[in-house]
Write a structure and sequence with these properties.
The chain has 487 residues and is an alpha+beta fold. It folds into 2 domains: 110 residues, Beta Polymerase, domain 2 (2-Layer Sandwich); 265 residues, Orthogonal Bundle (Cytochrome-c3 Hydrogenase, chain B), CATH 1.10.645. It contains 15 helices and 13 strands. Helix 6 packs antiparallel against helix 7.
């Protein structure tokens, strides 16, 4: 639960948020509400969550972006979905809305029972491009080869050199937050579970935590361990996939195929253990899916038989290591300025890992891997370490759970649950945050701030100054989730 802060005036609003950043706090979310309130939540280094609120003057509020560049997208999103105007924002181009949206249509304050009349216009928003003699504009997407989701990238290039990359995401924006608004709390879990397939356990855990916090319900230690076990199982799945895609970005097919085989073995094991390859519907308030701990240990051992030789192989391949080194570098200062999360931040020297401040991990002593180089090689190495750390945690959890009694009787949240709270977990991509407000058992506001939302601008920075041919490799080293971001 956040410590309440009084509604602030313009100077106090800016000063509070700047001071939080300077003190080393992590921005959890910047959230708008229908009553013209803008609320910031911060996670302080001691684990406390504090918040501040600004009440829009008419439709206007002071932009934090000139002082905190990491909120630039948050404020653009608020402008698109609510119509509130961040005054002095440096780049208030549409982020989500397209020229086809009616001029005064803002979906999170509109009556969605009435279908808007879409404009007859081209769908693309204006791109920020570099102008000058010899500059070529190259567009990639939004449709891509393979089965990845839609993303549109506009490159300004000179020869093979990338001068700037402009991101045009939200090609498949589904309006998840609008869909959640007004839902009975019993209908929330299936939708939250399907925000995306890469961080689904993290999203499910956030909703369960939020509902339990609002109800004042304390889950048992056994239930918490079972949830952490699922979170770490998901982290391994995501990282194995990403570790396969990075060598694919340079045509290193032997490494790619062997890693994909490990990922498939792990995913089949998750299906056998929990009943779903992507771990959908495994956590709800008061309940968590369970598995046989002996079978989990067998799965870890099976994958490790391939893993040990594979890691030695890829780390000893000089051509592969040379190709990753000094490519797509993000300096520590830039990572901090843009709020880089998860592997993207830790590979640039930022030591933050939300697990270290989560009470769910209080007795596990998570070892955080960091690397100061900030390049593709660093992001690859941090993932290698994190897979092995997750396996260590899973073994520890399995030992504890095998010694404990069965899960408690399933708990159901009260049907008239009310209140507002914030919940967070460390997803495979980084800090994942849900801000939840309920009234009489129905959602009045559900704001989802995934780590990928923070990391896309970091990726754009990493690509600038590189060669066009570096983009697939850099992109795969971040391997960001479109679905989480676009939601």
């Amino acid at each position: 639960m956040a410590t309440p802060i009084n509604i602030l005036e313009e100077t106090g609003w800016i000063d509070f948020n700047r001071q939080q950043k300077q003190s080393g706090a992590q921005l959890l979310a910047l959230t708008a509400f229908r009553d013209r309130q803008i609320r910031s939540h911060w996670l302080e280094p001691d684990g406390r969550v504090v918040s501040a609120t600004f009440l829009c003057r008419g439709e206007h509020f002071p932009s934090l972006s000139p002082h905190l560049p990491e909120v630039a997208w948050d404020e653009r999103e608020i402008h698109d979905l609510f119509g509130y105007i961040p005054v002095n924002h440096p780049d208030l181009r549409p982020l989500i809305r397209t020229p086809r949206w009616p001029r005064h249509f803002h979906p999170l304050v509109a009556d969605l029972a009435r279908t808007p009349v879409w404009e007859d216009a081209e769908p693309d928003n204006p791109a920020r491009e570099v102008e000058g003699e010899g500059v070529t504009i190259m567009k990639v997407g939004p449709t891509h080869a393979g089965i990845i989701e839609s993303g549109h990238f506009v490159f300004s290039i000179m020869g093979e050199n990338v001068l700037h990359m402009d991101l045009h995401l939200f090609q498949n924006h589904r309006g998840v937050e609008a869909a959640l608004q007004g839902l009975d709390l019993s209908l929330v879990p299936p939708l939250v579970s399907r925000i995306c397939g890469a961080d689904t356990v993290s999203h499910q855990a956030n909703w369960a935590m939020a509902a339990e916090q609002l109800a004042g319900h304390q889950p048992s230690e056994t239930l918490v361990r079972q949830r952490v076990l699922l979170l770490e199982s998901e982290r391994v799945l995501s990282h194995l996939n990403d570790l396969a895609q990075i060598p694919a970005g340079v045509g290193f097919q032997v490494a790619n195929q062997r890693a994909l085989a490990m990922k498939e073995t792990w995913q089949r094991g998750l299906f056998s253990l929990f009943g779903h390859r992507l771990l959908f519907d495994t956590i709800t308030p008061g309940w968590t899916a369970t598995a046989q701990m002996a079978d989990l240990i067998t799965l870890i051992d099976d994958v490790n038989q391939t893993w040990r030789g594979w890691r030695t192989f890829v780390e000893g391949h000089h051509g592969f290591q040379d190709r990753m080194r000094d490519t797509g570098t993000v300096k520590r200062g830039d990572a901090d300025r843009l709020g880089a999360q998860g592997v993207a931040g830790r590979a640039s020297g930022l030591a933050f890992d939300a697990r270290s401040l989560s009470p769910w991990y209080h007795d596990l002593a998570v070892h955080t891997s960091t690397d100061a180089h900030g390049d593709v090689a660093a992001r690859f190495r941090v993932r290698l370490d994190e897979v092995e750390e997750s396996w260590r945690l899973l073994r520890k959890l399995a030992t504890k759970l095998s010694q404990e009694s069965a899960q408690d009787v399933e708990w159901q949240p009260p049907q008239d649950l009310c209140g507002e709270t914030v919940a967070f977990t460390e997803s495979p991509h980084g800090l994942n945050v849900h801000v939840v407000a309920l009234e009489n058992g129905k959602v009045t506001r559900y704001h989802i701030r995934p780590a990928t939302f923070r990391n896309w601008p970091v990726l754009a920075l990493a690509v600038s100054g590189t060669a066009v041919g570096d983009f697939p490799l850099i992109n795969k080293s971040f391997e960001l989730c479109y679905s989480c971001n676009d939601r």
